[in-house]
């Protein structure tokens, strides 16, 4: 359960230790207060989480049942095909990293800047059938390990060259959402962690991850990792530059 708490929806490492967590787990009032005040969830999801934490044994049984059902009724059917596909994808990723070096590696880890304070022991990169075109990441608590899952078709997307209108569309698309604009406005005042963004904007950590990924891809938001915590900052110059360039390319094409 504490591994779930550290998965990005609650306090980060250093905020709560195992002894404190065990005391909370044995007291429903403290547990309810902890979930209410610390978790980056909607009220409805906090109620579900409280129910999960209140009976860990039942939660474990339900989760194992879900995994077994999924494997027997869905995954086992496509498992041989997926195994071959992911093996080929892993080989291609290795070749691309060997060929392109740091440039492609930074693309895979989403240009996260690991500071000198970071105590990361290793980074694991693995292909994912279900992500397809996306790259996602998660920190594994207590072992100082980061894991990145790379969609098996991710390389196809990166290898396709885009014309100026497509690049302009990507820039405008990054700005065409009120939640992303809210993130830009909040970060314009200074650096902020994912949890701080979630609480300030009343968003879930999943939503923060989803929207900041788009802004990072557009080059407007930078991310730095320090002691298992991601810290986001706005590159104001990049925002002005990318928007200006997109408008210039668009108007040139229209005039021509």
Q: How would you sum up this structure in a few lines?
A:
This protein is an alpha/beta fold and 256 residues long. It is 61% helix and 14% strand.
Which bin fits the share of residues in helices? 55-70%
Q: Major sheet, described briefly?
A: 4 strands, mixed
Unreliable segments of 5+ consecutive residues: none
Helix-and-strand structural type: alpha/beta
Please write out the topology.
Blueprint: H1 2-5, H2 18-25, H3 28-38, H4 43-54, H5 56-100, H6 102-108, E1 113-114, E2 122-128, E3 135-140, E4 145-151, H7 154-159, H8 164-175, H9 178-187, E5 192-193, H10 194-201, H11 205-217, E6 221-226, E7 229-234, H12 236-255
Parallel strand pairs: 1-6, 2-4
Antiparallel strand pairs: 3-4, 5-7, 6-7
Structural features, described:
This protein is of the alpha/beta class. The chain is 61% helix and 14% strand. The protein is built from twelve helices and seven strands. It has helices spanning 2-5, 18-25, 28-38, 43-54, 56-100, 102-108, 154-159, 164-175, 178-187, 194-201, 205-217, 236-255, and strands at 113-114, 122-128, 135-140, 145-151, 192-193, 221-226, 229-234. Strands 1-6-7-5 form a four-stranded mixed sheet. Strands 2-4-3 form a three-stranded mixed sheet. Helix 8 (164-175) packs across helix 12 and helix 10 (194-201) packs across helix 11. The longest helix has 45 residues, at 56-100. The mean pLDDT is 81.
């Amino acid at each position: 359960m504490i591994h779930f708490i550290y998965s990005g929806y609650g306090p980060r490492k250093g905020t709560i230790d195992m002894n404190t967590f065990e005391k909370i787990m044995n007291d429903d009032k403290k547990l309810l207060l902890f979930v209410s005040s610390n978790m980056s969830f909607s009220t409805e999801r906090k109620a579900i989480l409280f129910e999960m934490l209140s009976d860990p044994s039942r939660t474990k049984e339900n989760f194992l049942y879900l995994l077994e059902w999924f494997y027997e009724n869905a995954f086992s059917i496509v498992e041989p095909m997926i195994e071959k596909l992911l093996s080929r994808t892993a080989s291609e990723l290795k070749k691309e990293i060997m060929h392109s070096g740091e440039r492609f590696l930074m693309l895979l880890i989403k240009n996260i800047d690991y500071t000198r304070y970071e105590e990361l022991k290793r980074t694991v990169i693995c292909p994912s059938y279900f992500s397809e075109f996306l790259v996602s990441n998660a920190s594994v608590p207590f072992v100082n390990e980061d894991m990145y899952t790379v969609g098996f078709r991710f390389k196809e997307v990166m290898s396709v060259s885009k014309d100026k209108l497509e690049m302009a569309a990507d820039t405008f698309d990054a700005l065409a959402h009120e939640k992303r604009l809210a993130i830009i406005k909040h970060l314009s005042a200074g650096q902020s962690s994912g949890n701080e963004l979630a609480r300030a904007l009343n968003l879930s950590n999943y939503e923060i991850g989803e929207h900041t990924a788009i802004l990072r891809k557009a080059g407007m938001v930078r991310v730095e990792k320090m002691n298992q915590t991601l810290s986001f900052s706005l590159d104001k110059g990049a925002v002005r530059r990318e928007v200006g360039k997109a408008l210039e390319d668009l108007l040139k094409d229209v005039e021509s």
